[in-house]
Amino acid sequence: MKHLIFSCFLLCLNFSAIGQTDPLTQVHGARSQSMGNLRVHGMDTWSYFNNPGGLAKLEYSAISAGYDNRFGLKELSTTAFVGAWKVKAGTLGFGVSRYGGKLFNQQTLGLAFANQLGIVSIGGKLELFQTQIEGFGTGNSLIFSLGGMAELSPQFTIGASISNLNRTKISKDSDTRLPTGVSLGLFYLPISQLQFHLEVEKDIQIKPVVKAGLEYGIKDWIFLRTGINSNPSRLFSGVGLKSNRCSLDYAYGQNQALGSTNHLSLGFSFVEK
Fold first, then answer.
1. SS3 labels along 63-88
2. Domain 2-269 classified CATH 2.40.160.60?
3. What is the residue extent of each domain of the chain?
4. Per-residue pLDDT for 16 more than 80?
5. Three-state DSSP class for 135?
6. With contact defined as beta carbons under 8 Å apart, do 187 and 157 qualify?
7. Which residues lie across from 263 on neighbouring strands?
8. Mean pLDDT within 150-170
9. What's phi and psi for 123, nearest 5 deg?
10. Which domain of life does the protein's organism represent (predicted)?
11. Burial classification of residue 114, based on how many CB atoms lie within 10 Å of its CB (0-12 exposed, 13-18 middle, 19 or more buried)
């Protein structure tokens, strides 16, 4: 009976996860979240989670930390840390995250590698994904994800990201598979201060989600952002501050049915003097 209840819980979790907050499916980094939970064209350290191919676009090695609080519930909060190191062969990435509370939580730990090949940047990520439910035990999975982008011109880039490409199960004792998501995106830079993003995200079990966002740089160090999602309809906004080495980003999201979300990210770049 215990295993039956556990299996039913995992089934419900599998259908709801893509629209909620687990570290496998959620977008990381306040900058991306403030523009509508954009995944494909972040081109920063948080690309480790969102689209590993974006790591190749980094000019310098960097580290970032972030905290997400959703709907005022500690049990739906996420803490994450990520790093990227430039090497001769490309860019190495490392990330760790934790979502949930004492009764239910999920953790990820993994490595990524990305490289620039002409106009194309491509990257892959291998993660250990762990789910813990008090009273039921722990499930471990190994997840492979892939992503990349192609710069068609200095103003126009297209990209894609596939999470959980191997369609792994939530544990060896369950037939329930973790969500597999595909994101396609367009990036347009009409002027240096303004960015436009458009994405379509599709999980095999839910309807497509259309995302649109923009970022405007008032100065070289301050940025205003906003975004919108469909299915369900959500609004996002945020602000970013950036110096030569440090960055601070904040994002606010509004879901009419569930409430508001707040996201904060801190970053540090190892800029060469």
1. EEEEEEEECCEEEEEEEEEEEEEEEC
2. yes
3. 2-269
4. no
5. coil
6. yes
7. 68, 251
8. 94
9. -150, 155
10. Bacteria
11. buried
- The closest of 195, 154, 166 to 40, measured between CA atoms, is 195
> 38: which residues sit within 8 A by CB, 6+ positions away?
27, 32, 50, 185, 197, 199, 211, 213, 227
CB 112 within 8 A of CB 124: yes
Condensed to tens digits (0 to 9), the pLDDT of residues 180-231 reads 999 999 999 999 999 999 999 998 778 899 999 999 999 889 999 999 999 8
- Size (the chain), residues: 273
Q: Which tokens belong to 170?
A: 């939530």
Q: What is the pTM of this model?
A: 0.89
Residue 177 DSSP code: B
User: Mean pLDDT, to the nearest integer, of 105-130?
Assistant: 96
> Which amino acid does the sequence have at 113?
F
Distances 12 to 89, 94, 171, 177 between C-alpha atoms, Å: 42, 30, 15, 12
